[in-house]
Write a structure and sequence with these properties.
- The complex is a heterodimer of chains A (about 300) and B (about 325).
- Chain A has about 300 residues and is mainly alpha-helical.
- Helices cover about 75% and strands about 5% of the residues of chain A.
- Chain A has 12 helices and 2 strands.
- A two-stranded antiparallel ribbon of chain A has the order 1-2.
- In chain A, β1 and β2 form a beta hairpin.
- By secondary structure, chain B is mainly alpha-helical.
- Chain B has a domain of about 210 residues.
- Chain B has a two-stranded antiparallel ribbon with strand order 1-2.
- In chain B, α4 runs antiparallel to α5 and α4 packs parallel to α6.
- The chains are: A mainly alpha (about 300), B mainly alpha (about 325).
Amino acid sequence: MGLQVPSAHTLVTALVSGLLLGGLLAVTALGLSLVLGVMRLINLVHGELVVAGAYLGFVLLSKLGLDPLAGLLLVAPALALLAWPLQRLLLQPVLGAGPQGPLLVTFGLSVIAQNLFVLVFSADTRSLGRPYATAPLHLAGLEVPAIYAISFAVALLVVGGVHLLVRRTGAGREMRAAAEDPAAAAVLGVDVGRVHGRAYALAAACAGIGGVLVGLAFSFTPTTGTAYLLSGFAVVVLGGLGSVLGTLIGGIGLGVIESLGGAVFGDGYRDLVGLAVFLAFLALRPQGLLGRADR
Amino acid sequence: MSRAGHGAALEAPPRRSAARTGSAVALLAGALLLALATPVTGEYTQQVGFRMLEYAALGQAWNLLGGYGGLVSLGSAAFIGIGAYTTAELTNHGLPLLPGMIVSGAFAALFAALVSPALFRLRGLYFTIGTLALAEALRLFMVNYNGLGGNIGIFLTSAAPTTAGLYRLALGVAAAATGLVALLLRTRLSLALRAVRDDEDVARQLGLVSFRTKLLAFTLAAFLMGVVGGLQAGKLSQIEPYGSFGLQWTVDVVTVVLIGGLGTIGGPLLGAVFTVALAEWLNAYPSLHLAITGAIVIVVVRFAPRGLWGLLADGWARLRPERAPP
């Protein structure tokens, strides 16, 4: 662990790029937070939904020549359409029988998805390299990749949109009711199963958008999903469970921590610093995230 | 997995202790037969058998946590990796493999004990995430840290045992793991574990010390996993962090237990035989094999929560109705 003392300029650059990167982390975590909040389910296939979005963006770009940012408009609904039947047919039937059943179903789905990616796309490392993504952006004397700023803007749109959806629409009200007390919501005429299906589809759409951003900013392989599953949890823990806007704050928090960690300890330690902070945060909050987490 | 849980709980009453002794004798006889079979079986059979036995031992360890204790851990790779690295270092310093494996198990158990105060603050699903994060953090550390070979790993300088020797060692480990878990299930700990699994708060109110119960199960599982990690290192000439601490171990162990039968003593054995046999059958298509395994896991969780072992037990009960419990 070579400990360099970074210059002030390096630190400020790390701070700004971490902050911008936080937007990307927030989008990749948003779906996890929704499923956790509404369905009380740890969706172990979440990372693979992110990677599925990246591969879909890759196919649209390489086969149709569609720019990934425009492709977002196709990727998000496609992921929602893919995820909805998964929830209705595979998760819903085991949802009542304790927390382990659905957890293990998502575990099985994640194993299937990772290996389907290998079968269809091979294990090669891919990325959605676009000239505008890698171009440096000059911000007040600092230099950050333009995709960081682009993904931050997309993140603001996605997080803001989902926030309005959950807070201001009838479907969102049903979601909040089902999250708060599924039994009471059912008594009041909310079809909780259908609400769960919608929440899961929305979560997958967000994951897909996050995946395209990941593909633009970095590279990905069939097994990249695990890293985004874990960073997603870190974001949810830092930002507060079930809060849509909190996800953005958690994402920025994690982005800054990882970026500063990378600047101080070396780039290989970025993810490790993030995980260490995440674990410490988990351990210091005895009753899980909000004190009612374990049901 | 409350449905599986109830199934296991129904099995718990201390009936048919003669049948239990019988199955223990059968198990021992089977193990002895398998051990004596090495001269007639080929190298290939022994290699496949080695993997089945490794997974059987890992499955027993995981089942103690996940099946009986409801502690679904996704951190198995951490303990296997610690075991592999410890054995590699110890045998390189002249210690024979078997004592090296045992020390490795102790080392993994020590690590488990050290992290348990933090991990046990997390309940239910959060425990699962905590273990996954811990194992991934440890893997990333081992990849980046230069003290233990970094991402290249460690070369093992002592001569590896023969295939037959490794096979017999694995057989001993699997038999010991099965026997240990079976013995534990006859003690008060088993009831305490199941109580903690079904409702930790109620268990606590009833005066069961949930922390101590969980700690015992967690460190014992870690010990067994560390021993298997050491065994795996004994087979290899080089260990590196991607393989030893790889998530694939964790995934494989969970699938073995789920397919075999969560919360059953025979489940890990059946599951190990089934999954390794499936892998051999489809060995030309590793990704297809894993995708199929994932699909089998989903079908099992949905339709047969007690796995293959549960299906066998039900079939057996139907065939012999006169021996059904009153």
